[in-house]
Specification:
By secondary structure, this protein is mainly α. The protein is built from 3 helices and no strands. The longest helix has 19 residues, at 3-21. It is elongated and about 45 Å long. The two termini are 27 Å apart.
Length: 84
């Protein structure tokens, strides 16, 4: 399948995984395009934990929120909600 058909097939597979397993992987996301360094987020979480702080405190920084914002575009077709 080409372009849109391939994207639709991937979306269908991911939607089924989400329904059956409660999660779905989304391969090929370019986090750097939205200003997110996943390795830096992970390192910050480890550093917070090593110093006795909850790793979730990483959300005091912008990068995790940029990641969440970018996921809206990815998740909208998966959950088939036109209002996202």
């Amino acid at each position: 399948p080409g372009g849109e058909e391939a994207a639709a097939a991937i979306t269908d597979v991911q939607r089924r995984m989400l329904l059956e397993r409660g999660f779905a992987g989304v391969p090929g996301l370019d986090w750097s395009a939205v200003g997110v360094d996943v390795d830096a987020i992970a390192a910050t979480m480890r550093n917070l934990k090593a110093h006795g702080w909850p790793p979730v405190f990483v959300f005091m920084y912008d990068e995790p929120w940029r990641m969440c914002e970018a996921l809206f575009e990815v998740m909208a077709p998966l959950i088939a909600d036109d209002e996202l």
